[in-house]
Write a structure and sequence with these properties.
The complex is a heterodimer of chains A (104) and B (155). With 104 residues, chain A is an all-beta fold. Chain A has strands at 6-12, 15-21, 45-52, 55-62, 71-77, 84-91, 96-102. Helices cover 0% and strands 50% of the residues of chain A. In chain A, the strands form two sheets. In chain A, strands 4-3-6-7 form a four-stranded antiparallel β-sheet, with no helix packed on it. In chain A, strands 1-2-5 form a three-stranded antiparallel β-sheet, with no helix packed on it. In chain A, strand 6 and strand 7 form a beta hairpin. Classes of the chains: A mainly beta (104), B alpha+beta (155).
């Protein structure tokens, strides 16, 4: 099972500011292991989706070019305090994770 | 992920296939526009990546603001923030032009999401960081140079 992820969502005026931290190695598949000299197999998040109150707001495709333990910030107009934000990801090995938070 | 959607977008016919799928009600227009085929992420140069995204000749735009450091000491973690004030922004893609695979990420925005994305990317060497914004079926672009002291891809 994947490591937990963190979401923080705050309202600024009528815009919700959502910040997400995901735990993931994000290996490009191009890096060599310093000890063995072997290529480290690619292992990175390929898809991230976010919903606010069940309605999709973000549908992202990622690559190994995103830094380790990806950070993602986005803004959504319209939601209210207490609305639920759900962020989920899937990686190239079929691993998945999802987390939710209430907008504060 | 919707397997059908992936397959449709992978189809060689590209835009035509998508249009048919939209007409047939299989895909919502926002979804069809938001998703970039996986092959674009494997493209080895900017031209191929843009072609894969279906944005061959994006117009330069001053309404896209890229916030990134002028000099990044550590190429493994380069904070990048893209703000698009173009009305109807439906997707923001980020490319690091000299990376082995330039297309870093594509963010489809919908349901009230603003034209704003903040993330951290890896950069192999000093190069332009390019943002490609899709709005109303058209593509717009802007770029900013980031100098990298220590590369973050491979090593």
């Amino acid at each position: 099972m994947a490591e937990p992820m963190r979401i923080r969502a705050t309202m600024a005026g009528d815009v919700a500011d959502v910040k997400v931290l995901m735990n993931h190695p994000m290996e490009t598949g191009l890096r060599k292991d310093a000890k063995t000299g072997q290529l480290v197999p690619a292992h990175y998040i390929t898809d991230v989706t976010a919903t606010v109150n069940g309605a999709k707001v973000l549908d992202a495709g990622l690559s190994g070019g995103i830094s380790k333990n990806p950070y993602l910030g986005f803004k959504v107009k319209g939601p209210k305090k207490g609305d639920k934000v759900v962020v989920s990801w899937a990686d190239n090995k079929g691993d998945k994770n999802s987390a939710e938070a209430l907008i504060g | 992920m919707n397997a059908l959607r992936r397959n449709v977008l992978k189809g060689a016919a590209g835009a035509g296939t998508v249009a048919v799928a939209v007409a047939a009600g299989l895909l919502k227009p926002t979804q069809a526009l938001a998703d970039v085929p996986r092959s674009a992420f494997e493209a080895k140069n900017v031209g191929d990546a843009l072609k894969g995204m279906g944005a061959t000749a994006p117009a330069d735009s001053k309404d896209i603001i890229i916030k990134a450091p002028d000099i990044a000491e550590n190429g493994a973690v380069v904070p990048v923030e893209v703000t698009s004030s173009i009305a109807g922004t439906s997707a923001i893609a980020i490319l690091a032009e000299k990376n082995a695979t330039p297309l870093v990420a594509d963010f489809g925005l919908m349901g009230g999401a603003e034209g704003y994305i903040s993330t951290r990317i890896k950069m192999g060497q000093t190069s332009l960081v390019r943002a490609v914004v899709t709005a109303g079926g058209k593509s717009y672009t802007a770029a900013k140079e980031v100098k990298v002291t220590i590369g973050g891809c491979g090593g």
